[in-house]
Amino acid sequence: MLLPLLTPAAVAAAPDDTTPAVTVGDQHISRADLVGAATATAERLGAVDRVAVEADASLHTVVAVVAALIAGVVVIPIPPDSGPAERDHVLNDSGARLWVGSAPADARGRPHLPVRLYARSFHRHPAPGAESPAMLMYTSGTTGRPKGVVLSHGALAAGIDALAQAWAWTESDTLVHGLPLFHVHGLILGVLGPLRIGSPVVHTVRPTPEKYAAAGGSIYFGVPTVWSRVAAEPAHAAALRSARLLVSGSAPLPTQVFESLRELTGHEVVERYGMTETLITVSARADGVRRAGWVGTPLAGVSTKICDEHGTDLPHDGESIGQLFVRGPMLGSGYYHQPEATAQSWCGDGWFATGDVAAIDADASHRIVGRMSTDLIKTGGFRVGAGEVESVLRDHDSVGEVAVVGVPDPDLGQRIVAFVVPAPESQDVVTSGPEYAQSLIDHVAQQLSVHKRPREVRVVDDLPRNAMGKVRKNVLLDQF
Ligand code: MLC
Ligand code: AMP
Description:
The chain is α/β, with parallel strands linked by helices. The protein is 28% helix and 26% strand. The chain has 13 helices and 25 strands. Helix 1 packs across helix 2 (59-71).
């Protein structure tokens, strides 16, 4: 039996069909060749039960991920630009002992099994059960280090099928995007989606307006930063008129970007809402209403509710706002070996507490108002925990105290700003001026992933604190 995640389209692939199923930059591979190469890799995985994949934008990443899924081995995608602090944490926490795919920039002492794009095997592996874990996807929380979300084969399949239904996404579509392959958006929706549905995917390596315009697809994925950059280039935007759907997610799409794209492309962007922990649960539909600032209705099989701080259900009147809870077959199964953190979010009866604040109207349309915690920052569509950045900055010899916030930014949605009080013992070091700020920015970019770096560092004499000694981040945010 073939992997259910890839059926039925993969089963139907004729060995002599050379139509590109996956294109990344100037490389492409047919469906039959992809399954053949991935199966050949799967056979070389031996007794390993979890593998890390340096998830750069390449066919090697696609083959490595599919190989692991075919073999029933858990995939841990790693950002290719992540530094030693982030890498060590993810590798140690997940227990990954082997890299598969592209050669890692820094293997942290683990061996690497290269993928051979031209190897072929026609063996059939037994399909992993729907409950068996397919992926550990690391994502930031408000405090501490990133947690691994366990996503089962069944959740991935259900999540993709629900989107296919909402967007009338079929094998006649060509998907185009240039999103990173180490997150839900680019990898699960953007690669496994097309493979399951049977639609070709063109990955543009970088999500630039020029590359989107040249790709000639029918469905386009982007985070709001990508769409606002497209809207700023009218000639490239106009090239998307011939598409069927422009889809935005991972962060709030500004109303003016929605309006500009409507004018420039003739399309009302389809917005959808999700999380690493839940996959996509709410979306506008291909045949439904699209409203700027609203993210649509629950996908098939999904229930949602909003509750006040006591857990009391709030009315769906479009006005009441409360924490959004979601339930559905695409939810992850928990945080890897973190029962307490899991119990806090997966809170019984199948409900997941999103930490997002939302309103739901009488037609079941959802509006995401914000997040409950200022400590989860969304920058360029990437989720970054303030605590993780603070802890890396605190490790820098010159830093005494630090507070990290996300401030509104026209391009990135939010940009990361660090307030730093120099350590008293660092008097010999120059702790002011642009060079010092840049050295702290580089320190974060080198230890974590580049997108987690502060865009700005402000050196201050002290941090505003409340009577309990906790930093009052709202006071810092008021400065912007
Ligand atoms: C800059 N660079 C540095 C650096 N400063 N490198 C080292 N040290 C420093 N101090 C380099 C970078 O490596 C990169 O190099 C280049 O500068 C630009 O980096 P950037 O400024 O971060 O890129 P930018 O253009 O701002 O990126 C915008 C973006 C990106 C939209 C392309 O934010 C993006 O890809 N976002 C997608 C996020 C996403 O997919 N989220 C989904 C999460 S899942 P080089 O060589 O690379 O150019 C989810 C669920 C759901 O949320 O609902 O979908
Ligand atoms: P991540 O785990 O990186 O997938 O980030 C999930 C978070 O992204 C959610 O909790 C929301 O805060 C935010 N998010 C995702 N999609 C949207 C959207 N369409 N509108 C607003 N926020 C979104």
